[in-house]
Amino acid sequence: MRWKQNAPKHWFIECRDLHGRQVYQQEVFNSGQQNLTWDMSTLQPGYYVIRVVDVGNKLVANRLIQKLKHMEVGSYAVIFTSELNHEIQDYHAMAEEMLSLAKQQPGFLGFESARSDIGISISYWESLEAIQHWKQQTQHLLAQERGRSEWYKHYSVKVCRIEKPTSLSNRHKLNLADQLTE
Questions:
Q1: How does pLDDT run across 87-103, given as a tens digit for each residue?
Q2: Quick one: fold of 76-161?
Q3: Is residue 121 predicted with pLDDT exceeding 90?
């Protein structure tokens, strides 16, 4: 985490899961240091709310973060690249629905996506069997058909085995400079 030099001298960082249970708290005394590293390796995969409050319990910053499941050697990545047509009615809603559904599938590990002119989506899976099961899931089959007939000019799918995973996902940097006033 980073903050401005003139940040409050005394404040608290807390992390809660989406059930409201506190899973981490740290009292911070700002002695001119502008960086704080917090090791998230003990947290289970999922979503968390990070709150920073001053000693008067006034909210300084609030962020939603996600910790992904660890990608083990031998797990798989499905890399989907695409170029969209001009008319993409319902595309984004379907993409959100498919991600929500994928997260419920046995063997699902995580998802990353970026889109500019070309979209790149990577889903992570425990096994080839989990990927095959997802590919044949009824609602996903319908979305695939709509993709071919309505949304994509071009797409490609590549399935890759994870051989050497490295990640910074066990550490989260929260920039408080924009939230803290001078």
A1: 899 999 999 999 999 99
A2: Alpha-Beta Plaits (3.30.70)
A3: yes
* Per-residue model confidence (pLDDT) at position 177: 44
* Residue carrying structure tokens 């379907």: 94
Q: Mean pLDDT, the chain, as a whole number?
A: 81
Amino acid at 89: Q
Assigned token pair, 65: 């973060």
> Which residue bears the tokens 């709150």?
51
CATH no., domain 1-69+167-182? 2.60.40.3080
Residue 15's closest CA among 54, 64, 49?
49
Helix (H) or strand (E) segment spanning residue 103 = helix 91-103
φ, ψ of residue 152 in degrees (nearest 5): -105, 130
Contacts of 147 (CB under 8 A, 6+ apart): 82, 155
Calpha distance 9→141 (Å, rounded): 55
Q: Has residue 171 got a pLDDT over 50? A: no
